[in-house]
Specification:
The chain is of the alpha+beta class. It is built from 4 helices and 6 strands, in the order ααααββββββ.
Length: 188
Amino acid sequence: MQHDRQQQEPTPLQQTAQQPEHVGEPHDADVSTQFQQQLAEEQQKAEEYLDLLRRTQADFVNYRRRVSQEQAEERIATQSELLSHLLPVLDDIGRALAVVPPDIIKHPWVQGLLLVARRLTAQFEQLGVRQIGACGEPFDPRWHEAIATEASVDVPEGTILHVVQPGYALGERIIRPAQVVVARPPSP
């Protein structure tokens, strides 16, 4: 009985085989054109996806670069802030050593203070901190803060005559500008 049913109902393959083929009909050309259009659309989509992927990769590379740069800037800003709190200590040690009487310069206590000053200065240098502002340099408002002017005929106008308080920089970032006295021409 089952065998009879299979013979009575043709399979889809048999149905296709039983249909007469019409070679050269417009239907075949339409299918071929549709297939080519579909292929072109899919290729266009693939190109769009590839372009999107490339832009996403470029955005990610730019993001990583920006984050890295922001982290470096943040690290320098944090270091600068910490160092700005330590600079008054270095200034105080320098002022204390500047007024040590010559007769006690060899005293162990004074030598210990000199050692502390040298080690603190060495640590600043290891971190990349450099002192800015020196006598004889031309005044630069980016690095120096003029707190006074003094008439002078010996040096050109705008030259630093005295450093009241040294300045410090970390790379190109100023931690503290140098406070200086700047030369001006004498009054007529």
